[in-house]
Amino acid sequence: MGDPETAHREEMPASEQKSVKCSIRKKKSLRARYAYGVIFLLTNIIAWLFRDYGEKILPMLPYSKACGAEEEECYHTMGVLRVSLGCFIFFFLMFLSTCYTKKLNEVRNAWHSGWWAMKLVMLLISFVIPFFIPTDYVQIYGELARVGAGVFLILQLISVIEFITWWNNYWMSDDPKKSSCSFGLFMSTIFFIASVGGIVVMYVLYASKTSCTLNIFFITWTAILLIVMMVISLHSKVNRGLLSSGIMASYIVFLCWTAIRSEPASEKCSPQKQETGHGGWGTIVGFVIALCAIVMATFSTGIDSQTFQFRKDEVQLQEDDIPYSYGFFHLVFSLGAMYFAMLFISWNLGSLTRKWCIDVGWASTWVKIVNEWFAATIYLWKLIFPVLKQPKVMNHEEFMEEVDKV
């Protein structure tokens, strides 16, 4: 006996059969995203194990000359970079094999959404190869990873700002009859209260002493950016409302807080100065949250390919079009592999990171602060640019003055 579902499908008209096949392929494609997200999460966990517990793991693995006589070149910083390189190789190969995929009936769509046994073999090979690469070449990858991680941060910032803009347009519609405007005003108030509250709390916790000049500078400059964004958003020529600037203010306050939290534990104004050794439950919970945040940031940026299209024309999607850009998705994950490597080693190729810690050190602090300033700059430019590119409209008197000058 045949499959009833298959028999029923064969009885359908050709157009309906095509529609059903496209629907099935699209669902497989959407589910595949989560499989790649799980792979990325497991890679992060493996990198952490090699960093913190590599001395115990490596004796159980086959010996490799690239690891050195005592295998110390395959754990701590070098272990993280090797695992990151393996993850990068896998997702970059997926990028090369899926970029420019357009239709669901292409072979590359089937490769992206299926063939998991073959991809598992490719993944294992990608992870094994870096452990046979000499340390000098892994160091070169570490330098390149800094650049790749920076590119990832820029893509993430643009994605976040575009989401904030979309949310503002949705809740703060120009239609006065739309009831969502009241909710938008309420949310903008909440976000600004949270931002101001965050500034005050940071002053109390991290800048209570006059000797904490750097923290005072970071927090004060963040407060200035908050005020500037609010003023420009409310300017009559911009008139973008308070919701988007309120969300953005909360975001840069959060970036400032994470930057201060990344200061080394040895510093007198560091909030981590009381933590030693492995840390308590707070350290472990913070580590898990940070790990999940890395994966979520990579995943959300990877599926947001429309934000980075050069042409913003409204294009009607066809039924057999892929639901998201596979090439961009895998490219973001390959850059994400570089990004998590930098977080695990605190952007410093020559230092050791404490166990159960992510992104702690002066390099990490300055990366986050620069990231905050860059985010505010991009957002302010998005507010000002539409005003600058508008043609100047002269009234009759101005027009007559121009004519008299001629």
UniProtKB/TrEMBL annotation:
Cellular location(s): Membrane
List the GO cellular component terms. membrane
Keyword Protease attributed: no
Pfam families (alphabetical): Serinc
Where is this protein primarily located? membrane
Query: What is the membrane topology listed in the Swiss-Prot or TrEMBL record?
Result: Multi-pass membrane protein
Entries under PANTHER family matching the protein: SERINC-DOMAIN CONTAINING SERINE AND SPHINGOLIPID BIOSYNTHESIS PROTEIN, SERINE INCORPORATOR
Q: What protein family is recorded?
A: Belongs to the TDE1 family.
Q: What is this protein called?
A: Serine incorporator
Question: Source species, please?
Answer: Penstemon smallii
